[in-house]
Design a protein that fits this description.
8 helices, five-stranded mixed beta sheet, Deoxyribonuclease I, Chain A, 2 domains, 11 strands, alpha+beta
Length: 285
């Protein structure tokens, strides 16, 4: 939790520094400098100009969206999907009403889908313009939970690529926190044995600064936003009172070492409490 909210602590320190400067409390101002470097510094560093990584061949557009299961206002997100025109669309909190709305609006553009609607927060779907290779796995075992976690295989640049749609449990209470740690441990074991290049997107319910992200990095997965994004890339929350609080990056699209990302951005997510993530992915040179 300390690592997750380090940037927020830095905002408080920044206010203290501003007041210290205004009051000409130079010692207090000087004392805030190392704290600002530790807290706000990493977030500010993400705004530096970065050249796009070199990519070989064609680009695959992948979009991950947490729809928010209680969100009945489907039009804004559907417009974003139509504008981004992803090749692969990963959807979380997928319900029957979202299935009906998406099929009416973009179903003809995505002839290959696998879906599991639920009336809670853990329905899921994968929409693809490209055929699936073999059978899509709807229940990738992660921890002891039985929520849908999906694995599909498509062909990209004449090679097979495994696509995962993941929604991990949020850190609500000790039981969920322990279970999510088990899910992340199983993810690491799974990808270490995965024979194909991997794209894994979804709502991970952890930030880029947390130990869970470190664990994925150690097995060779990179966050597309760290490769091709600009800024903090935050995705939650974007509605209610909490939209005025500096948000967190809980939604990610990770790629394995064979792949890279030339561009990654967040959308608006109108009606949801999450912003979508859209990444341009291809094989690294």
């Amino acid at each position: 939790m300390t690592r997750t909210f380090l940037f927020h602590f830095g905002i408080v320190v920044l206010v203290i520094a501003a007041v210290a400067g205004w009051k000409r409390k130079w010692r207090l101002l000087a004392a805030t400098v190392p704290l600002l470097l530790i807290t706000v510094g990493p977030g500010a560093w993400q705004y530096r100009p970065r050249p796009a990584p070199p990519m070989a061949g064609e680009t695959l557009t992948v979009m991950s969206v947490n729809l928010l299961m209680v969100n009945e206002t489907t039009a804004p997100i559907i417009r974003e999907i139509e504008a981004a025109a992803p090749d692969v669309l990963l959807l979380q909190e997928y319900t029957d009403h979202w299935h009906t709305s998406l099929q009416d609006a973009v179903g003809a553009d995505y002839p290959h889908i696998v879906y599991f609607p639920r009336d809670d927060s853990f329905g899921a779907a994968v929409y693809s313009r490209r055929p699936f290779v073999g059978k899509v796995q709807r229940y990738v075992p992660l921890g002891s939970a039985n929520e849908p976690q999906m694995r599909a295989v498509i062909e990209h640049a004449d090679r097979q690529v495994a696509i995962y749609n993941i929604h991990l449990l949020p850190p609500w209470g000790m039981e969920y926190t322990i279970e999510r740690r088990s899910q992340v441990a199983d993810l690491c074991d799974l990808f270490e044995s995965e024979p194909l290049p991997v794209i894994i997107g979804g709502d991970f319910n952890f930030t880029e600064s947390g130990p869970q992200a470190d664990a994925l990095s150690r097995i060779g997965l990179e966050d597309s936003f760290d490769l091709g994004g600009w800024g903090r890339g935050t995705t939650w929350p974007v509605n209610s009172f909490f939209r005025w609080v500096p948000s967190l990056r809980l939604d990610h699209i990770y790629v394995s070492s064979e792949l890279t990302c030339t561009s990654c951005r967040t959308g608006q997510g109108g009606g949801s409490d999450h912003r979508p993530v859209i990444a341009q992915i291809g094989f690294a040179q």
